[in-house]
Structures are given as C-alpha cells and as structure tokens.
Amino acid sequence: MVTRPDAERRQPDKVSSRESTERVLRVLLVVANAAARIRLTNGLEARGHAVCATACGDEARHVFGPGLFDAVLLDLVLPAHDGVAVLRALRAADPATPVVVAASFQDLESAVLAFRSGATDLLSGGPAGPTTDELLAKLNDTFAKRPAPEARPRSGIGLPVDRRDLAAAPPPVIDARLFDLPLREARAEFERRYLDEVLRRCHGNVSEAARRAGLARTFLHAKLHALSLDPAVHRANA
Questions:
Q1: CATH class of domain segment(s) 163-236
Q2: CATH number of the 6-145 domain
Q3: For residues 212 and 203, what is the distance between their CA atoms, to the nearest angstrom?
Q4: Cβ contact 100:120 at 8 Å
Q5: The model scores a pTM over 0.90
Q6: Which of 26, 54, 216, 219 has the fewest C-beta atoms under 10 angstroms from its C-beta?
Q7: How far is it, in rounded angstroms, from Cα 42 to Cα 7?
Q8: Span 165-179, pLDDT tens digits
C-alpha cells in the first residue's frame, strides 16, 4: 500500500541545519522494511519534502509517471517483486528521473545489474537502512552531477491548463492536444484532469472521490500528492 504514514508516527531522523537550504523534493520511496520506510518518510517530511512511500513494486509502477517525482529510492530486494524489474519499469516510464538503488555491499552482483538497468547511483546503509541525511546527501550529489534540466510543469507535460477553467467547465471532452503527446505523457495528463474533475464533482470529498474512481482512499491520497492536486481547492469552491 502506498502510504504517508501519519497514523504510525515514529521518531524521524534528527533535522539537520541544512534543511533551510535544500531544494524541496518530491520523493518516491520503494522500501521493503516498514520501520525504515516510516523513518525516512518522517525525516523527509520534517525537512519540508513531499513523499510517497510503498513496499510494493506494482504500486510504485502505478503511481510513478513522467515528471511526477524528483527522485526515487528503490530497494533491490522487495517482497514478491524483483527490484531490478521494477527499476526497468520506472526507467521505461521516465528515463530522466534519478533512481537511487539501496543495496548491501554483499549483493554486488545485483548492484551491477541495477546500474546496467539504468540506476543513477547506489546507496548502502547499515542493518536499519540509510538515514535521511545519507539519502539527501546522495540525492544532492546526484543532482550536482547532472546537467540542469529544462524547466517543465510539475505534471511533466507542456500543456497550459488553467485550474479555474477546469473547475468552471462542463464535463470535459478529450483535448486534441493529448494526441500530440507520447502515450505515457498523455495518460498522465488525462489522469490528472480526470482526478481533478472527480474532486470537483465531489466538492473536494476525498472519500467520495475514491469511491467514484474505484480506488483505495490511501492510494488516491498518494496519487493526488504526486500530481499536486489539492482537494481543498474544490471544497473552497463548493
């Protein structure tokens, strides 16, 4: 399940003095160990970053899309999933987003295979996994080595969309401009518009929107977070 574990709060990693100078990141955590996943989520959110977290490779593939995240931390060992296969799927969906793989030095064969499959970097922590500071240091190092990307919208798609127009419009029709985009990008843009319209019809009620969309409420929360959709906008307009 994709989670932002508010109900299972544990002590996050200590917030460092660097938090005010770091860029705000949207991070997808695909971490098998529940305690490490919660600790990293809390530590990143304490520094102001946005996090989606899961232990499931299928859910990671479903929530991931072009431009939706600034970085991914991916365990190579996942329950019921091959971490390298998940890595390849993420790379096929968006080759530009950095994917840092977490692996032990005892598993060098898998690490080498991950690099051949498109991993950006390797992060190895102790038995409890990497700390938030170790992860952010690795991400900052990764960003420093990469050429500056062209500016793009948070959706990753260059279609100008005015949310006020969406909120006031009648039921939407398919925008012809979507057919000028690659399939993955068109799907991501349609998904964003679809969820925004469902929220508008439900007056920002996430539980009702999840029911209408046929999604688990926790999964819809993660999708809205990744797509930068705020239900409160439609509650205010109700």
A1: mainly alpha
A2: 3.40.50.2300
A3: 13
A4: yes
A5: no
A6: 216
A7: 11
A8: 444 444 445 566 767
